[in-house]
Amino acid sequence: ENPFQTVALVNLGSLYARAGRLEEAGRLWERALNTNPAIEEAVLNLAQIRSPAEARNLLRRYLEFNPGSKAAQSRFDILFAK
Question: Which positions ≥6 away from 66 have C-beta within 8 Å?
């Protein structure tokens, strides 16, 4: 109920994803990122369930915000290495 409890949004999104409720999970992760764009777990999770173009944009935006993120850079490299 509290949109500022981003950890709860991310965790509930993970539970939904494990239950196959990806659309709902994605909405929760997006809410978490709208509140706090620095939540790496939400970005990484959302990038796994979005189209390649959306995942690329999510990861790029996050890496601009946090260029030192090894997890995001690794995910970007795995998904989009040429």
Answer: 38, 40, 72
Take residue 5 and report the two structure tokens written for it.
Answer: 């409890």
Cβ atoms of 65 and 34 closer than 8 Å: no
Scanning 21-69, the segments in alpha helix (DSSP H) are: 22-35, 40-49, 52-65
**Over the stretch 15-25, which tens digit does the pLDDT of each residue have?**
999 999 999 99
Do residues 62 and 69 make contact, with C-beta atoms less than 8 angstroms apart?
yes
35, 4 Cβ separation under 8 angstroms: yes
Asked if residue 55 lies in contact with residue 24, where contact means CB atoms within 8 angstroms, the answer is no
Provide the whole-model pTM.
0.88
| Structure-token pair, residue 35 | 């509140």
